[in-house]
Design goal:
The protein is α/β, with parallel strands linked by helices. It has 10 helices and 11 strands. The protein binds pyroglutamic acid (PCA). The site of pyroglutamic acid has 9 residues, from α7. Pyroglutamic acid (PCA) binds next to α7.
Length: 324
């Protein structure tokens, strides 16, 4: 081999080493509207990963349930139909009661308490996710949950027979225990459901009511701060295992920033969206004492049921939280 050929061979070898892994495109389904703060945070996360990995991993978000409806997103990630996605995990409480830790009524009512509870619950959630071939990247809470109604509600009796939009087991159970009639509807579909009278009430954050302009159909929002559920951005664990260590570090750094920014937005958005509901013409006020008392009794039943379903790991979460 002359000098020229050996130089060339060497250069090819170096180039081969320097050649990045084949660029991957990750489609990321998200259930909530593009304008929702979770979707905005997800889009920033996607951009951070795409830029940070130099395009090795390029993420495209699909908000509003456009790629998969909310209820189908988790399975799509688990089965590798998509590598990554965002889901409200309490929507899968039937698979594991642990996923419902964030929908236990009145266990926490503020962001700070919720953060403490999350830190305690997180390892147990990650353990169940790992068994399901899922790796958690980041998670962001929704603002505290309040009650929406078309008609004024001042007593527990006023709720009996009202058609109620639910988004997970806990919300359906709340409806059953208050004598309402639950029907599960994705957030992306609620404007239509309220406009057509398929539902006349729901429990949700000011954020979701604001995003879906529910003042066009509903007239009352009662803040009860029942719980703060969370969205989770998860990656298929097989896909994750194939990501280089360098890129894993970048993805996790972007995830950390997204969790921080998303949580900050959730807090900021709470007051802003409640003011938006009022500006849209809704009566926005705290539930009266009588209603709170009735709801707390319902909450106590739901808490007992959750503890029963979640067994020892569930009890350990609540005990550790109460001991703080
Ligand atoms: N909005 C979502 C879940 C919790 C929330 O505040 C929804 O209503 O579907």
């Amino acid at each position: 081999m002359n000098h020229m050929t050996s130089f060339y061979a060497g250069a090819v070898a170096v180039a081969a080493l320097a050649t990045p892994a084949i660029a991957e495109n990750w489609d990321m389904p998200m259930a909530y509207s593009g304008s929702n703060f979770h979707s905005v945070t997800g889009a920033e996360f996607a951009e951070c990963v795409t830029t940070g990995t130099g395009g090795d991993i390029s993420i495209t978000t699909h908000p509003g349930g456009s790629l998969f409806a909310g209820a189908d997103i988790k399975r799509a990630i688990q089965t590798g139909q998509v590598p990554i996605g965002e889901r409200l995990l309490s929507g899968h409480q039937n698979e594991s009661a642990i996923f419902g830790w964030d929908s236990v009524p009145f266990l926490v009512s503020s962001f700070d308490e919720h953060d403490k509870l999350y830190e305690i619950a997180k390892p147990a959630v990650e353990e169940v996710l790992a068994e399901q071939n899922l790796t958690l990247l980041y998670s962001v809470p929704w603002p505290p949950q309040g009650l929406y109604f078309r008609d004024e509600v001042t007593t527990m009796e006023d709720m009996v027979g009202v058609k109620f939009r639910s988004y997970n087991n806990a919300t359906s159970r709340l409806a059953e225990l208050t004598g309402m009639l639950p029907v599960t509807i994705e957030a992306a579909e609620i404007s239509q459901a309220f406009a057509t009278g398929v539902a006349d009430s729901m429990v949700s954050s000011g954020a979701t009511g604001y995003d879906r302009k529910v003042w066009e159909s509903l007239n009352y929002f009662y803040s009860v701060d029942a719980w703060l559920p969370r969205n989770y951005v998860m990656v298929n664990s097989d896909v994750w295992a194939d990501v280089s260590d360098a890129n894993k570090n970048i993805v996790m750094a972007c995830a950390g920033m997204a969790e921080y920014a998303g949580t900050w937005r959730a807090k900021e958005y709470t007051g802003f969206t409640l003011a938006g509901l009022a500006a849209g013409g809704m009566t926005v006020e705290p539930a009266n004492e009588n209603l709170m008392e009735g709801l707390k009794a319902v909450g106590a039943t739901m808490t007992a049921e959750w503890l029963e379903a979640a067994g020892e790991p569930g009890a350990a979460i609540v005990e550790a939280f109460n001991a703080e």
